[in-house]
Amino acid sequence: xxxxxxxxxxxxxxxxxxxxxxxxxxxxxxxxxxxxxxxxxxxxxxxxxxxxxxxxxxxxxxxxxxxxxxxxxxxxxxxxxxxxxxxxxxxxxxxxxxxxxxxxxxxxxxxxxxxxxxxxxxxxxxxxxxxxxxxxxxxxxxxxxxxxxxxxxxxxxxxxxxxxxxxxxxxxxxxxxxxxxxxxxxxxxxxxxxxxxxxxxxxxxxxxxxxxxxxxxxxxxxxxxxxxxxxxxxxxx
Length: 237
Ligand code: SF4
Fold this sequence. Notes:
alpha/beta; globular; 7-stranded parallel β-sheet
């Protein structure tokens, strides 16, 4: 049995995915790296705006100066935990990302220290290369994760995250195949899981998310399941 999902435009994702309060992208653009990217909503959003900053060897578009001011405003107004999903229209550890924007972002996380920043990637092999030289306690408000779409992606990416000193999590979204987390939950603080969305979305079997929830429950790992009412908010620092 498969679930029928309704397509949600990227603009309303923050409102309907309440594991984060807002999003921030230091630049715009990326390249597809695996089957999880097949129906990338960010690429569709990008091309819908007439931009061509997607693909290998293509220059990524810098973020506007106005957008860079938003996190400062969120930080100033934050009355409690405020979670920022970094990079809905990029992969922060993309080797073709903009180096200046990446450096500016790291400084931003120190200035906007009341915010909790969530970065997840399909390129964990690049994490250590692109962490700042002073990575450590100064970045306690930054959590790092890998994006996983199926078992093959989990087996490939999870070990590369395991060695990183950070609060770590998995984004299993879009889930396009069964995932067995039993050997991969050491040191993981929380998991978000959800189905693919959009007109070409691939079906998700609710049993797959039930398995993920069960494995997490066994290990005391919090789960935010976008396809069900089980929504445990992620850790803040
Ligand atoms: S890594 Fe993410 S942003 Fe980049 S193409 Fe794949 S799904 Fe899209």
